[in-house]
Structures are given as C-alpha cells and as structure tokens.
Amino acid sequence: MITRSxxxxxxxxxxxxDIMTDLLTILSTNPxxxxxxxxxxxxxxxxCSKYLEILExxxxxxxxxxxxxxxxxxxxxxxxYLFDMSRDFGSISEGEESVWKSRSAQSPRILSELSN
Length: 116
Known about the structure:
The chain is an alpha+beta fold and 116 residues long. It has a domain of 74 residues: Arc Repressor Mutant, subunit A. The protein has five helices and three strands, in the order αβααββαα. The protein starts with 15 loop residues before the first helix and ends with a helix.
C-alpha cells in the first residue's frame, strides 16, 4: 500500500465565504491594491476581481485611488461582519478545513442580512 506524504495530501477547496472572509481580514489590517491582495489570498486576478466586486456590492469593501492606483479597504459594515463572524463562528483551529462547514445552513442567512 502506498501512502502519501503530507505535501501530497489533497486539500479541500475553500468555500466562497472562506475566501471573502480572508479578503476582509487582510483589508481590515492593511488596505491594499488588487495585485497585492490576490497574492496574499492566493487567488487569480479574475477570481480576486470577482470576489471584490461581490464584496463592494454588499457594501463591505470600498475602493479608493492612491498615487494613481486603485486600492481597497474594508468599510464599517465589513468590520461589523468580521466581528459577527468571529463571535458566531469562532476561528479555524489547526486541522480544520473551514469555519463554515458546521454552520453551512446559517452562512447564506448572514450574507443575505448584509445585503438588505
């Protein structure tokens, strides 16, 4: 029987909510441009653009121009969202794949509340 090393183990994909929370978490400590953000969250340019557009429509992220470059920052509503997520879901413990797995039924409700 062949066993896989830890490097070869297949990792579960992040959910959309995990990715959006990662984006918000980074922006909460450091407003930055799209390129820097996509590298820090490990997304393609297209994926990063898609998620930032969603987050802007929800009102949790805003763009601004600094030195002729678009930057993104978290809004007050985004800060409240992160606070609520950490209060309601906690944080990922080592070995867990997602904070959302155990709460998947509640996750859509939270995002829909933000958009209302």
